[in-house]
Amino acid sequence: xxxxxxxxxxxxxxxxxxxxxxxxxxxxxxxxxxxxxxxxxxxxxxxxxxxxxxxxxxxxxxxxxxxxxxxxxxxxxxxxxxxxxxxxxxxxxxxxxxxxxxxxxxxxxxxxxxxxxxxxxxxxxxxxxxxxxxxxxxxxxxxxxxxxxxxxxxxxxxxxxxxxxxxxxxxxxxxxxxxxxxxxxxxxxxxxxxxxxxxxxxxxxxxxxxxxxxxxxxxxxxxxxxxxxxxxxxxxxxxxxxxxxxxxxxxxxxxxxxxxxxxxxxxxxxxxxxxxxxxxxxxxxxxxxxxxxxxxxxxxxxxxxxxxxxxxxxxxxxxxxxxxxxxxxxxxxxxxxxxxxxxxxxxxxxxxxxxxxxxxxxxxxxxxxxxxxxxxxxxxxxxxxxxxxxxxxxxxxxxxxxxxxxxxxxxxxxxxxxxxxxxxxxxxxxxxxxxxxxxxxxxxxxxxxxxxxxxxxxxxxxxxxxxxxxxxxxxxxxxxxxxxxxxxxxxxxxxxxxxxxxxxxxxxxxxxxxxxxxxxxxxxxxxxxxxxxxxxxxxxxxxxxxxxxxxxxxxxxxxxxxxxxxxxxxxxxxxxxxxxxxxxxxxxxxxxxxxxxxxxxxxxxxxxxxxxxxxxxxxxxxxxxxxxxxxxxxxxxxxxxxxxxxxxxxxxxxxxxxxxxxxxxxxxxxxxxxxxxxxxxxxxxxxxxxxxxxxxxxxxxxxxxxxxxxxxxxxxxxxxxxxxxxxxxxxxxxxxxxxxxxxxxxxxxxxxxxxxxxxxxxxxxxxxxxxxxxxxxxxxx
Length: 781
Fold this sequence. Notes:
Elements: E1 45-60, E2 76-88, E3 91-98, E4 106-112, E5 116-133, E6 138-139, E7 147-149, H1 152-163, H2 170-183, E8 188-203, E9 210-227, E10 237-238, E11 240-259, E12 262-275, E13 279-283, E14 309-313, E15 318-331, E16 335-348, E17 382-396, E18 401-414, E19 420-421, E20 425-427, E21 431-433, E22 437-438, E23 443-456, E24 461-475, E25 481-496, E26 499-512, H3 519-522, E27 545-556, E28 563-576, E29 581-582, E30 594-595, E31 599-617, E32 620-638, E33 651-672, E34 676-695, E35 712-727, E36 730-744, E37 753-754, E38 758-759, E39 768-780
Parallel strand pairs: 7-13, 10-38
Antiparallel strand pairs: 1-2, 1-39, 2-3, 3-4, 4-5, 5-8, 6-7, 8-9, 9-11, 11-12, 12-15, 13-14, 15-16, 16-17, 17-18, 18-23, 19-22, 20-21, 23-24, 24-25, 25-26, 26-27, 27-28, 28-31, 29-30, 31-32, 32-33, 33-34, 34-35, 35-36, 36-39, 37-38
């Protein structure tokens, strides 16, 4: 029985659609799972327990990581579920476990007395990013993975062979590295495990007028993820994994006092993030001896010079604290005011800076070896002060009209000291650039005001009208501040017979008083020079934009309760201003000093959905759903080299359009009342993407080719289970599911070697087909 799982568990976190109807939700509200009639009604003492045991079997036709990307399905004996729930005197307890010992195991616990409560929750979250990858480099140690190396002999051989080539191109360089690539084992699995624990303690919960609580959160992340920072230039890129050994801790104390006039609350929070590793090191496959060359970023074609090794900083350890307090005041039965204040600080100063470079051939302008020369600072001494003020007011001014208003101010004040690099910096570990630079501590603040009123027209309709104003101020950016005003209106129509329609419309417009295309980059230079970035670019978070959104939802639930039907449609469109802007820099290709802006020009999201539920009798329920999503965006850009280009013949554009269709149906049938039940479910989803490209004649004289294989995926999922309650406290279930996934995407295609100076891990996260089946046995008492 290759495709059948013998599982004594039906409640599987990864497949909520299979959940046994006896489980219900997991809130701590009382006994379930076969409790004796009347046990819930006993307010003094009860005890209910449920245990599910079993074995699973799965069969997958590929090594793709996608099947187990966020779940764990072992073969063999398992314990997918248990619960112990009871009350004795003033003591109340509840313990729930899912998928015991698995990577996605979950536990929820509650212990409660008359004036205190302790709750615990633990969740395991696996992340599988890719299986069976390979690399031209080899990790030095499997325990930490902070060094990826190539043997000195191979490095020397590659360097000598490439230096001896009369011309360097794909066909001449590839044969040099191909034998090593072919011989490497496909044994790199990129995966990460997150284990999250939260413990809370409350004193006097729900008793009297004063509560105090303490919460502790702990998350450990171990494993690897792909690292895109290991490069020696545009052509010489080596994809590696980033070693993850993170611990995040959060400690919170809170207190609340209640009275007839309202509530006062306050708290203190401390957060700490710790990374076990500071740096990551890797070898350059094409260089065994350090050398310096300003063209090294184009290697190994233009030159084979450059560094022999690279060094990268990993995410630094940091900490933060926050103090908060506020109140909710009631003014009679119709008016309520809530206000709170939060302030805190983020700090990062634990990790020392890495040296200027790994390249021993590079000297500073003052003649020192750059690998050991003193840096302007040894650590960041990062510091950001944060402040948040929130207020909310609501009042029922008449029996039919309610006014609501809210205000939020958030300030991110970056007080990190700016570090000056007076002599310049090292680019790609290859060459010293005598361009003085300075670090930029970005910050921002946001003011949001929202007011809206609701008016009840009686039995047939209700109206809502609102206005929102948002102003964001930024430091060291292209704009000092942007403002956005949004107007909205909504209406509910009640037609009787269980029919309800809700419609809404929003219009918002964002603007700025001035946009300086070179302001952002100039803040990082000590001496002004010609701009390096496109001056006509309008960054999407600051650009002028009009936003339109409208839609509606229809719901029909007749009094008979047999049928429930819902349909909705929403349309969202962001239009970015394409009026001519200043080129800033004079150019023969910028007549009149103006051009159309570059950047995101349009973004559209449309969605339509249908849901129907039919329950002709208590013995069976049928349901189905369909949704359609259209997601598109249009953006423009311009290809430039070392000097800024304004020639429209170097322009390109991309129009990405994704169409997503999802359809599904299911049935829950009682074959024999109170004894035999059948559950069936099917779901199909298809994503059809396309990227329509255009390019100027400077880029492609014959024009650009579209990319039809763009995020194209489809998934088929079918499950079924028969449950048999053969005794008062025993139930048996037999079931299984089939899942098939396919992806065709040029961006994530299986590419091991490119140009061929770039090396990719090429881990498998593509197509798969899988069967899982089970038999479950549940005992409740």
